[in-house]
Design goal:
The structure is a single chain. This protein has 140 residues and is mainly beta. It is built from 2 helices and 11 strands, in the order E-E-E-H-E-E-E-E-E-E-E-H-E. It has helices at 33-38, 121-131; strands at residues 2-6, 12-17, 25-30, 41-43, 49-54, 60-63, 71-75, 83-88, 91-97, 109-114, 135-139.
Amino acid sequence: MRVLGSCHCGNIAFTLDWQPEPAEIPARACTCSFCTRHGGVWTACSAGALQVTVRDRDRVSIYEFETKTAQFHICAICGVVPVATSVIDDRLYAVVNVNTFLNVPAEMLRRTPVSFDNEAETERLARRKRGWIGNVAFAD
């Protein structure tokens, strides 16, 4: 399945090649204050490939929490956060925000609240390596 998504103005857009074809898409509604305030409901297909396109890199803000292990790509024009990335062992991993999907029926999304508050950094990075998209490319 080819999943298309973007921020509201289209400055940050992505195509996710979801393999194999999903019957449903897990949607993790993170309960941290950042994700709650920005509508961050994240998903990933570890076997998939993600292509992110940015029209104007000068209009993308990167936000990192205290641990600096993930980068949230925020469009400085419209304020939407379509993608988050993490560099682990010199490899780029990513998740995408289901609230930015353009072509996925809402009934395909299986939303579940999650909290990572008590997760140690080593556990967090290991979880991301297992479950996040590991084939990620950014283009202008």
